[in-house]
């Protein structure tokens, strides 16, 4: 457990994590974005996942990113980025897929914590993720709520601990009820701002997104300003 604490641990800087990022088959992904994306829905889902994974890989607290997907295109592009792609999903949806990815990650890196991270965080900033993971290192099991406050974008378990993911719908309440500690950290908006609806897309465009998503936004029929991380800051 080097670098990690127990539930009451103090500071554990330097802990490293295996991140589990689930990516649904693109043909079925991001259906709520159909209104904004039209024929580009699958492209947009892939761009969002790629920007999320690229930012996760750039985080100093990340040991490895395990992308759980059955989609051939996502597999190829996420591998190219440097993720380890995990196939062979057991079926049954998101939570079984995350359990599967967590088992693969724990077998590969038993000394690292395991952290499920939503694939729909196109504004994700590595330094904000690092702050969240540093905070998670002081707990056995912890999570970060999404911006609206009903869902979860990140669920972390210390080495050897069970992830027990209960994502989908009102997952914040489920994770709390299941004993996970909620991480209450200021200034980590990019880790909390997931994209499910056209309104979410407009919100992240204002925050500044990664380059793949930014390029897609320019091509959308509904039109969004080109707001890459760099441009949004200037
Ligand atoms: N590997 C895998 N990932 C999944 C599965 N279901 C959902 N996900 C991923 O989990 C996250 C949240 O998924 P959802 O909000 O349920 O689906 P979505 O594709 O984002 O959006 P909608 O189609 O609009 O519901 C996204 O990163 C999805 O790619 C699954 O069965 N397998
Ligand atoms: C999967 C979840 O959210 P969403 O469907 O909003 O991405 C969740 O918050 O548990």
TrEMBL record:
InterPro entries attached to this UniProt entry: CofC (IPR002835), Nucleotide-diphossugar_trans (IPR029044)
One of the GO biological process terms: F420-0 metabolic process
Function, as annotated: Guanylyltransferase that catalyzes the activation of phosphoenolpyruvate (PEP) as enolpyruvoyl-2-diphospho-5'-guanosine, via the condensation of PEP with GTP. It is involved in the biosynthesis of coenzyme F420, a hydride carrier cofactor.
Pfam families: CofC
Family (UniProt): Belongs to the CofC family.
Reaction(s) catalysed (UniProt annotation): phosphoenolpyruvate + GTP + H(+) = enolpyruvoyl-2-diphospho-5'-guanosine + diphosphate
EC number: 2.7.7.105
Species lineage: Bacteria, Bacillati, Actinomycetota, Actinomycetes, Streptosporangiales
Pathway involvement of the protein, from the record: Cofactor biosynthesis; coenzyme F420 biosynthesis
Binding site for phosphoenolpyruvate: 152, 171
Gene transcribed to yield this protein: cofC
NCBIfam families: F420_cofC
Alphabetized UniProt keyword annotations: GTP-binding, Nucleotide-binding, Nucleotidyltransferase, Transferase
Protein name per its UniProtKB record: Phosphoenolpyruvate guanylyltransferase
One example GO MF annotation: phospholactate guanylyltransferase activity
Top EC category: transferase
């Amino acid at each position: 457990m080097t670098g990690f604490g127990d539930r009451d641990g103090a500071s554990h800087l330097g802990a490293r994590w295996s991140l589990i990022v689930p990516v649904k088959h693109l043909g079925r992904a991001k259906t709520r974005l159909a209104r904004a994306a039209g024929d580009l829905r699958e492209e947009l889902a892939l761009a969002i996942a790629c920007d999320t994974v690229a930012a996760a890989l750039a985080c100093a607290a990340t040991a490895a990113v395990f992308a759980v997907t059955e989609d051939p295109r996502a597999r190829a592009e996420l591998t190219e980025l440097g993720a380890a792609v995990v196939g062979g999903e057991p079926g049954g949806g998101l939570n079984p897929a995350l359990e599967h990815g967590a088992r693969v990650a724990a077998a590969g890196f038993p000394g690292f914590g395991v952290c499920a991270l939503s694939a729909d965080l196109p504004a994700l900033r590595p330094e904000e993720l690092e702050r969240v993971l540093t905070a998670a290192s002081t707990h056995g099991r912890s999570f970060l709520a999404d911006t609206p406050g009903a869902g979860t974008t990140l669920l972390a378990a210390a080495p050897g601990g069970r992830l027990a993911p209960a994502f989908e719908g009102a997952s914040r309440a489920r994770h709390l009820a299941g004993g996970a500690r909620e991480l209450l950290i200021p200034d980590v908006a990019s880790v909390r701002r997931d994209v499910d609806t056209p309104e979410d897309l407009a919100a992240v465009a204002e925050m500044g997104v990664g380059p793949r998503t930014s390029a897609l936004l320019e091509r959308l029929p509904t039109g969004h300003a080109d707001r890459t991380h760099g441009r949004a800051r200037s």
